[in-house]
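A reminder from the course coordinator: this example appears on the midterm review sheet, so study it carefully.

Given structure:
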């Protein structure tokens, strides 16, 4: 579909119908073929004739981003505070997380210490 051309009410209804069957915007755009992901997203978020919104939870679930459990984050912060002289790699191996996770905890600790001074 060309840019800057509003979708027709019929196309909006077609997108809404497809989103009720599958709430994954990229898959809906690929299935329909003549609309972009952005158009599907706009329709899902109420930018259409009836103002109806649809939660796109299938796309979020497909991304697979898992939040870090608070207990493990607390363990990382505790180890960083207890062993400030240890390298990030040593701490990561001891705790069982990646070095970049330890690095985030170190930066957060540095930022917190700077704010208290």
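Designed residues:
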């Amino acid at each position: 579909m060309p840019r800057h051309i509003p979708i027709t009410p019929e196309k909006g209804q077609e997108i809404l119908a497809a989103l009720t069957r599958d709430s994954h915007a990229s898959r809906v755009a690929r299935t329909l073929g003549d609309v972009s992901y952005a158009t599907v997203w706009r329709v899902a978020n109420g930018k259409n004739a009836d103002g109806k919104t649809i939660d796109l939870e299938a796309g979020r679930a497909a991304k697979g981003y898992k939040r870090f459990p608070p207990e493990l984050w607390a363990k990382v912060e505790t180890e960083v505070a207890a062993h400030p002289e240890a390298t990030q790699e040593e701490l990561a191996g001891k705790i069982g997380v990646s070095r970049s996770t330890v690095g985030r905890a170190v930066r957060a600790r540095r930022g917190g210490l700077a704010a208290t001074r």
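Residues 70-116 form one domain. The CA atoms of residues 20 and 87 lie 50 Å apart.
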